[in-house]
């Protein structure tokens, strides 16, 4: 690694770490103030939730920090006339862009692993804290048997009820329908006594579900041969409500990237709209890709290396405006994708693709990367 490359990376990392710290402090302060205004938690709980929320903050911070690092590091090199000297020494603009693009790509890979594994892990613990808090405050709903999910490689979601184990492949929130469900009942001595398997179950009323195309196995805890009965429709009352299954759907966000991909495959098989989860899946890749794109976006300043063309005040105004506009537009696109108004690929990669097209046109116009 040459001394010029080390200089560029040093300045870039300095601004990246500084901007990330400032933005992290701003979001953390907003989180603390919001929690205090709610007046629903003590300082210990606020601190714990803040720590668990930090990885989610980094998802918003890293792409913008990459832009800030490239913009201000180039601006600093301009003001000290080092940028002109760098190019005069034979260090091409292409090599400069490759350098900051490489470090931007490394940040993107780091962000991908944070988004794919660390964020689901922290969200899982956040839900646990909410359940504990609800139990401490006497919430009757929270005192029910807690529902813990685990999407296995087969795509099944399992949880434990009061006297049974329950598994199903997916839940359609629009029609309140469970697919590929199986219940395993056990008695007071914890012996497996009964099993019910159904193709799907539709919610009727008063916690009653209609199971369709059902196999009912009984006498499983006796020494006699089990009894098997096939029923087209079987009414069944269970302790879990529709809201419980909707909450489980919300808990899908706690799955890591590959388990989430398996669950999306199950939804495809059952013909259920999977846009919401597919957007979440693709967002983990697009956020990382955006770090690379925004790192290079600020490199358009390389075509005006004269320090007279740079202004610290203009850069600050641009960064503040761009940050809020970027967060708003990107969040809006994600919402459109999750509600199936636009394709998931457009919702996640639409905004960074606009930047890529702009960069391609700008570089082709100047013809100075050669």
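Q: What amino acid sequence fits the structure above?
A:
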């Amino acid at each position: 690694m040459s001394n010029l490359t080390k200089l560029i990376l040093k300045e870039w990392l300095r601004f990246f770490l500084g901007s990330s710290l400032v933005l992290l402090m701003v979001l953390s302060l907003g989180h603390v103030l919001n929690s205090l205004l709610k007046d629903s938690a003590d300082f210990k709980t606020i601190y714990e939730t803040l720590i668990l929320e930090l990885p989610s903050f980094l998802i918003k911070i890293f792409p913008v920090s990459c832009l800030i690092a490239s913009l201000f590091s180039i601006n600093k090199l301009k003001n000290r006339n080092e940028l002109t000297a760098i190019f005069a020494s034979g260090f091409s603009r292409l090599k400069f862009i490759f350098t900051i693009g490489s470090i931007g790509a490394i940040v993107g890979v780091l962000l991908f692993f944070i988004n794919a594994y660390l964020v689901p892990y922290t969200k899982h613990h956040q839900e646990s804290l909410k359940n504990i808090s609800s139990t401490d405050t006497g919430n009757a709903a929270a005192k029910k048997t807690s529902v813990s999910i685990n999407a296995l490689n087969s795509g099944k979601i399992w949880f434990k009820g009061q006297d049974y184990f329950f598994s199903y492949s997916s839940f359609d929130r629009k029609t309140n329908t469970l697919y590929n469900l199986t219940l395993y009942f056990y008695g007071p001595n914890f012996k497996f006594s009964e099993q019910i398997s159904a193709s799907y179950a539709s919610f009727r009323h008063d916690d009653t579900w209609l199971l369709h195309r059902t196999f009912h196995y009984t006498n499983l805890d006796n020494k006699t041969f089990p009894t098997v009965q096939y029923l087209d429709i079987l009414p069944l009352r269970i302790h879990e409500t529709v809201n419980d299954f909707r909450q489980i759907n919300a808990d899908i966000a706690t799955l890591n990237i590959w388990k989430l991909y398996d669950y999306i495959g199950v939804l495809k098989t059952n013909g259920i709209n999977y846009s919401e989860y597919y957007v979440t899946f693709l967002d983990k890749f697009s956020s990382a890709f955006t770090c690379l794109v925004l790192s290079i976006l600020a490199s358009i300043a390389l075509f005006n290396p004269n320090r007279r063309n740079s202004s610290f005040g203009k850069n600050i105004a641009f960064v503040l405006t761009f940050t809020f506009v970027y967060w708003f537009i990107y969040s809006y696109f994600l919402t459109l994708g999750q509600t199936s108004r636009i394709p998931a690929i457009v919702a996640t990669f639409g905004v960074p693709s606009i930047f890529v097209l702009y960069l391609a046109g700008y570089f082709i116009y100047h013809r100075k990367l050669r």
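Q: And what stands out in the fold?
A: Confidence is low (pLDDT under 50) at residues 137-149.
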